[in-house]
Amino acid sequence: MSVFGTLIVLAFLALAHLTNAERVLGAYVFQRHGDRTAKSWPPTNLTNLGYNQEYMTGTFFHDRYISSNSSFQIDGISTEKVNLKQVTASAPQDDVIENSGEGFLQGLYPPIGSAAAETLRNGSTIDSPMNGYQLIPMSDVQSGSGSEDNSWLQSTSSCNKAELSSDNYYSSSSYEDLLSSTKSLYQSLSPLINGTFNSTELSYENAYTIWDLIHVALIHNSTSTFPSSDLLTDQTVQELLVLANEHEYNLAYNSSDTIRAVAGMTLAGEVLAALNETITSGGKSKLNIQFGAYAPFLSYFGLAGLTSVNANFTGVPDYASSMAWELVTNDTSTGIPSTSDISVRFLFHNGSAIDGSEQLQAYPLFGQSTLELPWAQFVDKSNEFSITSQEQWCSSCGNTTGICSSTSDNTGSGSSSGSSGSSTGSGMSLGVAGVIGAMVTLGVLVGLFVLSMLIFGLRFVPKSALARAKRGSDASITPIVKENAA
């Protein structure tokens, strides 16, 4: 083939590549906190290892979504200086989780040095602290506060029905069987952890907190303070991990009682709302990051049918694990295309990106065979279980107090016709109540006015009579209401 012919072929190949080029329109990331101290010894704290894990994972997502060199760069996102209209971050009130978020965000948008300097009117230059450190605020999410200081998975859900559902696991036959069959295993650990757990606490009932203590010790404690003896062989460690996973997954999800997975339901609603905002805003909102604990992972895995894709989805994800939902399109025009041209891709990475040996891997959602789901289908499938409003959360959880007091009526139905904060205790909307109140007030004033006329002998005088009276009198002003001469 001639050189000219080769150039034509290469040109067509390049054109084909551009025509089929994928654009990432936006993304939602749910990020687990980094390595921490043990739950058995609150308050828990983020370790230096955990802080580093989060920083490196944030750097990974910078390279994927922010860097101009990335084939997965979010369309139109600011590459150097963060645009706070494009990026949203949130976390529950929890020291471990919030500090993890700070570390992640430092990696996502690193300091920009002299580019952050500011020149004042008088000509002086103000350098930004910490070499142009970029501040990205985090808003609060309602669920998950204080989760890393609590050992029970549902401890911070505040959802009455979810807590009752999880409690039901402790009376199930599968739980009773494991409680009995593993008794000797947990009792054998007494010489190692009797300073934290007494003999009555050494059972499958505390499977996760026992595993958590041992897991933290194997990472941080020296062999002199926590010896790896015959009591803690590799086989025993693996068995304890499997039991802890079994315990927590059954507290987080149950196919016949899905309210147990309220954490995943709430997360699904937040993902829907954020991705929809990316579309409806014309792409102004581009990247959402939420930081949290492992409960939403396990709950969402069950709800989205991921456990049938890979059995590993029934296990507690490692520190600094990531879930991501990407809005993608093959439409080559600029801006946000029609929703019929938009799809959603789900990705997961177990553990931090600190070693760089693994990348995010895509998995099919909802039992589908494809990795990319059309937007409309993603919405429909997600809406089968997602919680998208406070009113829906209160109704689903059966909560009628606290934040749900404004959405529960006097009959105890647990819901109202308005959204949270827009209804009265009787279920009447605030707008209707205001109109009725104004009408009642007006009626009272009219009644008082009429009563005063009767008491003082006042009467209305027609406008024509006033005019005649004015012409026949030297008075400059004729009162609208005057005394009855009789």
Automatic annotation (TrEMBL):
InterPro entries: His_Pase_clade-2 (IPR000560), His_PPase_superfam (IPR029033), Histidine_acid_phosphatase (IPR050645). The chain crosses the membrane at residues 430-461. The keyword Phosphoprotein does not apply. The keyword Glycosyltransferase does not apply. Keywords: Membrane, Signal, Transmembrane, Transmembrane helix. This is Uncharacterized protein. GO terms for molecular function: phosphatase activity. It comes from the Eukaryota. Residues 1-21 form the signal peptide. Gene3D superfamilies: Phosphoglycerate mutase-like. It comes from Penicillium frequentans. Pfam families: His_Phos_2. Belongs to the histidine acid phosphatase family.
